[in-house]
């Protein structure tokens, strides 16, 4: 029942109880016939307690009157006390001021003050005046503050301190202060001579407590009067309340009015039916809602419930003594929930109260609410499952799986082909590819996954997909437009029991990514408008996930394409090292790990590996910038520490330039390891910028890590130098360079990873390719959170027979013999085709070293896949090519070197410089009779340095 019917029940349960407890007769009997049933003697105290604990208007009136009387008396007493306090203070001020002025103007005071001993004459008079005035003291002192009289003789002659400036100016005053004896009042009056000049001051203090003692003797009279008034008022209030209780039987006017208001509300306003059925099944009361629900006649009250046209089951319940709780009964076209309770022992007549509630609409709403809850739960599950991956196909499959069978029996997702590739879909076009489906049997008649399908232009399905409009076909068998697109496939679909279809486009940012087909078959109800709205909501959420996956796929593809274009596509040809490598991108996307193999002049090779913190396009682009920078710096033939120093300066400048732009985060956090291997000597020089140390696996199975001096990562501008480390390696040693993604992850710290790498490299000798496979299998985690780069190089040594060296004295006459010896060595190596060009190159380089360089001068020939001629001297001055004039006798030598050599250059060392020139050997070598270009002079001159 509603709140009003609840109050009505409480009234029914309460009113008779009060009547019984107070001897009140039921409605319809004479209340005077039952007066005086309770004896007065021994039961008086019990009756008083019952009266005090009963909620009645009489008790409330009594308590209210009693409280008012107490408040009035308290206010009167408070007013008297306040007035008394005020009178006390006023009396104290008047008394002290009168005493001070009277004594100050008394006869003979001036003579006494002017006498030789004023205290002897004034002290007796002051004490007599003090006692007569009722003050605590009469103090006389001169203007210098010396006390002449005082109630305490010990204070006479002492200097008085006080605010007596007004009295000294001839004005009496009164002050209140808090002294040692409590609140006190003091008054002072000036003593003037015949000319009006103030010659002394008289002060009279009095303690307020002394004045109040006289008033306190009046308080018992005040309190006695108050107690008497209280007793008289209480007695009168009790008599009035007793009379009121007898007349109302414990129910006050407000409660009785509320009772009748509730009675009217139950009869007319409560939207729940109420029936009161008496003994014998006679209807005693029916409210308006009960009349409407049961379609009762206007004069139904007083008739038997069996004569009201109710069904037999309802009549049996109303006439029986059985209680009921929410029993459903059919009345006309309504489903009524009935509740029945007996009125005993509360009512005067035995009967029952019946409440009725119409549950017809409630059951319909309950079904809709349950359906709505199921749909919300489905949307929640869809949001959790569909957004869990950034793969377009898996996102489409999650949409199909989450909707079957809770919403549809079959769900098929079709996407535009560019979406599957991560590209932006075209604005128009109805060609779609099946991406996922769920709920289909093996022999289903629908298009399989991966098949490209289209719709006839102008059909509702094609228009809906192309323009982003949803379409519902509740009855497929009766839709000629749908069947006309592919009659044979439509027949097969209908034969599988499919009878209803919805096509909902996947819209994201106003672009159609594809469409979702929802099918129902068998006994499932056909789709309606509410289903279409829900399908659009579900498809809208899925479209966001698919679009996110598409954009992620596009960005990942772009990043991987950029990275592949920036990473080395193949290793350069060289004889110094046998190299193998592995690169594995992280699950989170493209990272910034990179490596490189760079051939250097002088039969040397540089191995580089680096790591840029982060993932995505910025990391890949940063990696490319660093790789290109390393290539450029390596062309200068710098040592590893110098190269890293230049690279650190470059990164710092890039970061500074990018601070004022939106180019992205700084490069700070990039590491790099640069290793140079000399093919001739077998020496390794390495320097690191915050990167992990390289590992060396020796041919005998030992493994050790090269630890160059610790240096910070690139771009920190720490100012610390990069220090290299050098050592010689035996032939067949394996240099292993790697990034931190290989040896460090969440489940393994760095030290454990390095030990695992040491264990994987130890053991018998393996090729670089086999070493890469072994290391990746042993250390690579299942799902790497960081990308992994691995570079393995096995060292080789150049045959000493392919190396020839000469020391040259700084004498022009020494050039010819060394040149001839070099030509013989080239001929002995079977390179007769290069003898002429080698002779020309060495002649120019050795002559320059003798003329412009300094000792020691050294010549070296290296026979690798190229023929390398090196001339070293102790000078750091580098020759350079310059345009010689027609009249110049010199300056054309380097032109000739550049003409005959495939490459040439200069590298520096702590002992000076080395000028080298490389010539191709084998098929790439130029013919022996090849002549220089026409613009070069026939005479071979020498170029100067500087």
Task: Please supply descriptive tags for the structure shown above.
26 helices, disordered N terminus, PPM-type_phosphatase-like_dom, disordered C terminus, hydrolase, alpha+beta, five-stranded antiparallel β-sheet, 946 residues, SpoIIE family protein phosphatase, six-stranded antiparallel β-sheet, transmembrane helix
Which term fits the overall shape?
Answer: flat
> Which percent band covers the strand fraction?
15-25%
**Number of discrete helical segments:** 26
Mean pLDDT, to the nearest integer, reads 78
Radius of gyration: 58 Å
State the major sheet: 6 strands, antiparallel
* Contiguous runs where pLDDT drops below 50 for at least 5 residues: 1-44, 928-946
Got a strand count?
31
**Into which percent range does the helicity of residues fall?**
40-55%
Secondary-structure content class = alpha+beta
> Could you give the order of strands across the largest sheet?
13-12-11-16-15-14
What is the first-to-last residue Cα distance? 111 Å
Keywords: Cell membrane, Hydrolase, Membrane, Transmembrane, Transmembrane helix
Membrane topology: Multi-pass membrane protein
Pfam families: GAF, HATPase_c_2, sCache_3_2, SpoIIE
InterPro entries: Bact_Sigma-Reg (IPR052016), GAF (IPR003018), GAF-like_dom_sf (IPR029016), HATPase_C_sf (IPR036890), HATPase_dom (IPR003594), PPM-type-like_dom_sf (IPR036457), PPM-type_phosphatase-like_dom (IPR001932), sCache_3 (IPR033463)
């Amino acid at each position: 029942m509603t709140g009003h019917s609840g109050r009505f029940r409480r009234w029914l349960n309460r009113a008779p109880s009060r009547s019984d407890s107070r001897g009140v007769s039921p409605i319809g009997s004479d209340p005077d016939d039952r007066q005086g049933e309770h004896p007065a003697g021994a039961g008086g105290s019990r009756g008083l307690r019952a009266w005090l604990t009963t909620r009645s208007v009489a008790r409330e009136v009594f308590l209210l009157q009693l409280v008012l009387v107490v408040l009035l008396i308290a206010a009167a007493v408070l007013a008297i006390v306040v007035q008394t306090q005020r009178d006390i203070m006023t009396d104290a001020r008047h008394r002290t001021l009168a005493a001070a002025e009277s004594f100050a103007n008394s006869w003979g005071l001036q003579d006494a003050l002017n006498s030789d001993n004023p205290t002897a004459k004034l002290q007796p008079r002051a004490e007599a005046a003090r006692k007569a005035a009722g003050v605590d003291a009469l103090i006389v002192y001169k203007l210098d503050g010396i006390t002449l009289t005082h109630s305490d003789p010990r204070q006479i002659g002492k200097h008085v301190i006080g605010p007596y400036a007004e009295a000294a100016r001839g004005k009496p005053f009164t002050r209140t202060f808090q002294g040692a004896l409590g609140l006190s009042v003091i008054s002072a009056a000036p003593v003037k001579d015949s000319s009006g000049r103030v010659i002394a001051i008289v002060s009279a203090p009095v303690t307020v407590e002394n004045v109040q003692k006289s008033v306190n003797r009046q308080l018992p009279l005040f309190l006695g009067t108050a107690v008497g008034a209280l007793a008289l008022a209480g007695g009168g209030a009790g008599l009035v309340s007793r009379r009121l209780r007898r007349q109302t039987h414990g129910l006050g006017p407000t409660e009785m009015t509320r009772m009748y208001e509730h009675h009217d509300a139950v009869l007319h306003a409560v939207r729940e039916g109420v029936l009161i059925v008496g003994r014998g099944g006679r209807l005693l009361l029916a409210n308006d809602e009960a009349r409407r629900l049961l379609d009762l006649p206007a004069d139904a009250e007083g008739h038997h419930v069996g004569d009201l046209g109710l069904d037999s089951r309802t009549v049996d319940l109303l006439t029986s003594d059985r209680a009921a709780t929410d029993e459903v009964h059919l009345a006309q076209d309504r489903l009524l929930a009935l509740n029945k309770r007996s009125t005993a022992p509360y009512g005067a007549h035995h009967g029952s109260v019946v409440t009725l509630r119409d549950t017809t609409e409630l059951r319909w709403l309950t079904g809709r609410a349950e359906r709505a809850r199921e749909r919300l739960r489905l949307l929640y599950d869809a949001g959790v499952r569909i957004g869990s991956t950034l793969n377009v196909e898996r996102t489409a499959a999650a949409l199909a799986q989450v909707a079957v069978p809770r919403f549809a029996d079959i769900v098929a997702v079709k996407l535009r082909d560019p979406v599957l590739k991560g590209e932006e879909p075209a604005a128009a076009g109805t060609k779609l590819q099946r991406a996922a489906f769920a709920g289909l049997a093996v022999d289903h008649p629908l298009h399989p996954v991966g098949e490209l399908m289209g719709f006839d232009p102008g059909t509702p399905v094609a228009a809906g997909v192309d323009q982003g409009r949803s379409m519902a076909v509740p009855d497929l068998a009766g839709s000629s437009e749908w069947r006309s697109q592919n009659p044979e496939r439509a027949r097969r679909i209908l034969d599988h029991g499919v009878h209803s279809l919805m096509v909902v486009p996947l819209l994201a940012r106003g672009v159609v990514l594809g469409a979702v087909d929802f099918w129902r078959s068998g006994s499932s109800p056909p789709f309606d408008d509410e289903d279409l709205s829900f399908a659009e909501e579900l498809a809208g959420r899925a479209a966001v996930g698919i679009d996110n996956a598409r954009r992620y796929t596009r960005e990942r593809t772009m990043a991987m394409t950029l990275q592949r274009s920036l990473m080395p596509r193949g290793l350069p040809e060289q004889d110094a090292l046998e190299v193998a490598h592995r690169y594995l991108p992280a699950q989170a996307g493209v990272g910034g790990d990179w490596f490189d193999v760079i051939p250097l002049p002088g039969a040397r090779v540089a191995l580089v590996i680096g790591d840029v913190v982060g993932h995505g396009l910025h990391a890949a682009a940063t990696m490319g910038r660093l790789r290109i920078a390393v290539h450029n710096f390596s062309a200068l033939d710098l040592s590893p520490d110098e190269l890293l120093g230049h690279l650190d300066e470059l990164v710092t400048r890039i970061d500074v330039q990018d601070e004022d732009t939106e180019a992205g985060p700084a490069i700070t956090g990039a590491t790099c390891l640069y290793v140079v291997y000399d093919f001739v000597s077998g020496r390794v020089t390495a320097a690191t910028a915050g990167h992990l140390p390289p590992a060396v696996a020796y041919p005998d199975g030992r493994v050790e890590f090269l630890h160059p001096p610790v240096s910070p990562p690139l771009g920190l501008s720490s100012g610390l130098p990069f220090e290299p480390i050098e050592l010689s390696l035996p032939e067949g040693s394996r240099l292993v360079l790697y990034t931190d993604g290989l040896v460090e992850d969440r489940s393994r710290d760095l030290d454990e990873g390095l030990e695992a790498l040491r264990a994987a490299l130890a053991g018998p000798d393996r090729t670089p390719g086999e070493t890469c496979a072994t290391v990746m299998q042993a250390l690579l985690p299942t799902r790497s959170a960081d990308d992994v780069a691995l570079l393995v190089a096995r060292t080789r040594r150049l045959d000493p027979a392919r190396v020839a060296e000469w020391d040259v004295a700084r004498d022009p006459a020494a050039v010819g013999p060394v040149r001839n010896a070099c030509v013989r060595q080239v001929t002995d190596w079977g390179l007769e085709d290069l003898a002429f060009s080698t002779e020309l190159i060495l002649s120019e380089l050795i002559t320059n070293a003798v003329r412009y360089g300094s000792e020691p001068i050294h010549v070296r020939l290296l026979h690798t896949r190229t023929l390398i001629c090196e001339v070293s001297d102790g000078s750091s001055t580098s020759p350079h090519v310059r345009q010689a004039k027609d009249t110049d006798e010199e300056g054309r030598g380097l032109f000739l070197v550049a003409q005959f050599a495939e490459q040439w250059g200069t590298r520096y060392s702590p002992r000076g410089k080395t000028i080298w020139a490389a010539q191709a050997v084998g098929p790439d070598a130029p013919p022996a009779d090849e002549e220089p270009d026409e613009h070069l002079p026939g005479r071979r001159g020498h170029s100067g340095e500087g």
